[in-house]
Amino acid sequence: MMTGARHRLIAALAGIILSSASCTDESTAPQAATREEAGPHTPTLETLLTCRVTIAEAEFQCAPSTASAASTQRTNLIVGGQNQFVRLESAQPVIDGGLFSADVTIQNLTLQPFGTADGSVAEGAGVRVFFVDEPNNGVVVSNSDGTAPFLSSGPARYYEYNGALLGDDDILTPGEVSGAKTWVFALNGATEFVFSILIRTTVPDPRSSTVHLTRLEQGEHHGCAEGGDGKLYCWGRNQFGQLGNDTFDDRSTPVAVVAPAGVTLSNLVSGPNHSCAQGSDGNAYCWGWNFFGQLGNNTNTDYKTPVAVQQPTGVKLSTLRAGSVFTCALGDNGKVYCWGSNANGQLGDGTTTQRNLPAEVLAPAGVTFTNLAAGMRHTCASGSDGKTYCWGDNEYSQLGDGSTTHRLLPVVVAGTRQP
Question: In Å, what is the CA distance from 203 to each residue of 2, 121, 189, 245?
Answer without folding.
Answer: 29, 11, 40, 18
